[in-house]
Amino acid sequence: MLLMKKIIKWLLIILCIPVLVLAGFLGYMSLTDYRPASIEPLNIEGSASGTLIPDTIQLITWNIGYCGLGKEQDFFFDGGKGVRPKKEDYQRYVNGVMEAIHGFAGSDVILLQEVDRDSKRSYFQDQVPMIAAQLPGYAYAFALNYKTKFIPQPLTEPYGKAVAGIMTLSAYQPVSATRYALADDAAWPTGLFMLKRCFMAFRYPLANNKELVVVNQHLSAYDDGTVKQQQMDTLRKFLVNEYALGNYVIVGGDWNQFPPDYHPVVSGADGVAGMNVEKDFPEAGWSWVYDLTYPTNRKLNIPYEAGKTETVVIDYFLVSPNITPLNVEVIDLGFANSDHQPVRVKVSLKK
């Protein structure tokens, strides 16, 4: 009987160890969890060569995929197996992305998403100064939307640490840059390992005493649409308020939703949840500006193969009624160095 009690005791201890380890891990992750304020001013770095922004401007938006999702890659969270590229592939993607960004010189505002600062997936390289070096004479700001000490998936090769965000660069000096929080990707405990979404607003004074507000955003992926709707509701309130003040507003980025009246054939659930944005978002009179000539995003369940890999359009612009879109085009790079393609737009501010 005494021996049996000792066996039961040790069995209970052994069974409790993983529970205690898990509780300790979740406790540590909770204590170190990134909890940004709802509104945060951002530092504007660099110095723009331009002063007063012109009435006609050109913008580019591009999700650079942290320079880790080039054409040879698949990704475990999108139905593939890959976690991060080989070091030599990553370096090639970095070189390609930086070369493309260098070629954006001459554009007035550049909106980038998935820019890494200290992540295992990108070999802990700080991409912000690398990008800034490609565009001397541009002011820029960075807003965190991903900061977690350790992501345990997949168990055989954990994703590890991730520090990343969105970056806006401008050839004209903005008067302010601000981070606005959006609904988190997931609740606790899953949310400890997911993004803390946001949008970033650059403000420019205009000659008519109004402001141009340029918004860089990256909405949620891999949800059923519930979180994206919450984020769109927050964005709606911001945009309606800015336009009511008489300001001019441009929004660009990775919407992780399809444009209105665009219904691609896709095989199943993915990061965009098969959703379309509302045609009259945030209210009637606003214009969605997109190009369907080339796709802007490809699925990551397999390495990219033209004609075989599923592709969609989820990167584009939205402008307020006092702005006239002049043209828009996807810059076709063949998904060589990112799972997204850049989109360039030219608009004119109405007098």
Task: Name the features.
15 strands, 351 residues, alpha+beta, Deoxyribonuclease I, Chain A, seven-stranded mixed β-sheet, globular, 4 helices, six-stranded mixed β-sheet
Question: Can you offer a commentary on this structure?
Answer:
The structure is a single chain. The protein is globular. The strands form three sheets. It has a seven-stranded mixed sheet with strand order 1-6-7-8-9-13-10, with helices on one face. It has a six-stranded mixed sheet with strand order 4-5-3-2-15-14, with helices on one face. It has a two-stranded antiparallel sheet with strand order 11-12. The protein has helices at 2-31, 87-102, 127-134, 226-244; strands at 39-41, 56-63, 109-116, 139-151, 160-170, 176-181, 198-205, 211-218, 248-254, 287-289, 297-298, 311-312, 315-319, 323-330, 343-349. The chain folds into two domains: 1-31; 36-349, Endonuclease/exonuclease/phosphatase (Deoxyribonuclease I, Chain A), CATH 3.60.10. The protein is 21% helix and 28% strand. 42% of the residues are buried. It has 351 residues and is α+β, with helices and mostly antiparallel strands. The longest helix is centred in the N-terminal third of the chain and has 30 residues, at 2-31. The mean pLDDT is 91.
